[in-house]
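Example 9 (inverse folding). The structure is encoded as follows.
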C-alpha cells in the first residue's frame, strides 16, 4: 500500500522538500557529531561551540573552526548531493533544508538551499553583524573592518536561535510540498526535527532514507534503509523516467 502511494507521489510531485543531516555529509568524509567516531569525541562542544567559549578564548575556538573548514574544503559532494541537484531538471521545485554547515549542496549545484544551522563558509561581526569575507591565507581571529569587533563563524551555536528567515522558508517548503525526503539525520535535534512532521501534517508523503532507524521512523510513510549516495541516484532515475 505504501509502496504504491510512494510511486504515485513520485509520478505526480511538483514540489519536493528535502531535509538532510550529518549522515549525508559523512558520505563525503565530513565527520559527524554524534557517531562513536564523530567530531565531538575529541572535543567538548560546551568548550567550543557557544558564545561564552568564544568570548573566553576566541583564538582557540577560531582555530578549531579553521580545522573544520579545512576538512570541508577537502570534501567533495557525493552521489547523493549530485542526485538532488540533478532532480531540479525534472521537478518544478526542490527545496533543500539542511542541518549541515559545509556548503556541499551548493557545490553540487542545488539552487534552493536553506541552511538551518548556518555555514562554516560565512562569517560576521560579533558586534555590528556585518558580513566578513575571509581571505584564503588569513589566519587568527579577524576583526571587523567597520567597527573593529571580533569576527565569528557564521554557524548557529548551542543556545542560539535559528535564523528566522531561513526557518520561515523551510517551514513554507515543508507545508507546501507533495513529497518530503528526510535523509541522513538522527531526527533528535530540535527544532529542525519538526520539519518532516510538519510536512506529514500538511499532507505530504514522507520518505526517510537512513542506514539506521531513527526517532522519526515510526512516523515515516516509507523508511528506506540505505545511504544517500546509493538511494538518491535511484530516485533521480525514477524522476527522469516519468517525463
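The amino acid assigned to each position is listed next.
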Amino acid at each position: 500500500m505504501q509502496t504504491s502511494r510512494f510511486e504515485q507521489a513520485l509520478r505526480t510531485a511538483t514540489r519536493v522538500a528535502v531535509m538532510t543531516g550529518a549522515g549525508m555529509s559523512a558520505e563525503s568524509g565530513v565527520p559527524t557529531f554524534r557517531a562513536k567516531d564523530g567530531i565531538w569525541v575529541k572535543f567538548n562542544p560546551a568548550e567550543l561551540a557557544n558564545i561564552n567559549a568564544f568570548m573566553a578564548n576566541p583564538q582557540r575556538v577560531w582555530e578549531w573552526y579553521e580545522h573544520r573548514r579545512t576538512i570541508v574544503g577537502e570534501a567533495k559532494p557525493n552521489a547523493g548531493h549530485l542526485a538532488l541537484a540533478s532532480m531540479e531538471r525534472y521537478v518544478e521545485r526542490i527545496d533543500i533544508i539542511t542541518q549541515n554547515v559545509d556548503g556541499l549542496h551548493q557545490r553540487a549545484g542545488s539552487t534552493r538551499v536553506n541552511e538551518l544551522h548556518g555555514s562554516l563558509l560565512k562569517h560576521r561581526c560579533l558586534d555590528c553583524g556585518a558580513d566578513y569575507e575571509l581571505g584564503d591565507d588569513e589566519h587568527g581571529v579577524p576583526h571587523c573592518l567597520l567597527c573593529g569587533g571580533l569576527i565569528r563563524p557564521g554557524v548557529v551555536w548551542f543556545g542560539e536561535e535559528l535564523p528566522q528567515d531561513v526557518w520561515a522558508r523551510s517551514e513554507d517548503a515543508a507545508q507546501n510540498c507533495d513529497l518530503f525526503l528526510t535523509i541522513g539525520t538522527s531526527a533528535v535535534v530540535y527544532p529542525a526535527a519538526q520539519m518532516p512532521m510538519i510536512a506529514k501534517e500538511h499532507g505530504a508523503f514522507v520518505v526517510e532514507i537512513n542506514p539506521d532507524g531513527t526517532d522519526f521512523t515510526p512516523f515515516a510513510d516509507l523508511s528506506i534503509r540505505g545511504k544517500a549516495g546509493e538511494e538518491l541516484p535511484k530516485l533521480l532515475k525514477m524522476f527522469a523516467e516519468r517525463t
